[in-house]
Amino acid sequence: MKTVLNLLFLLPLITNAQKQEDTLMVLPTIEGKIFYNRIYVDSGFSKTDLFLKARNVFQKLFHAKKGVNEHEDKENGIISAQVYLSFNTTREVTNIVFQNVVKSTITIKVKDNKYKVEITDFYKISSDANTPDEPFEEIFLFDKAKDRPNWYAYYANLNQRVMLILDQIFAEMNQKLSTEF
Question: pTM of the predicted model, to two decimals?
Answer without folding.
Answer: 0.77
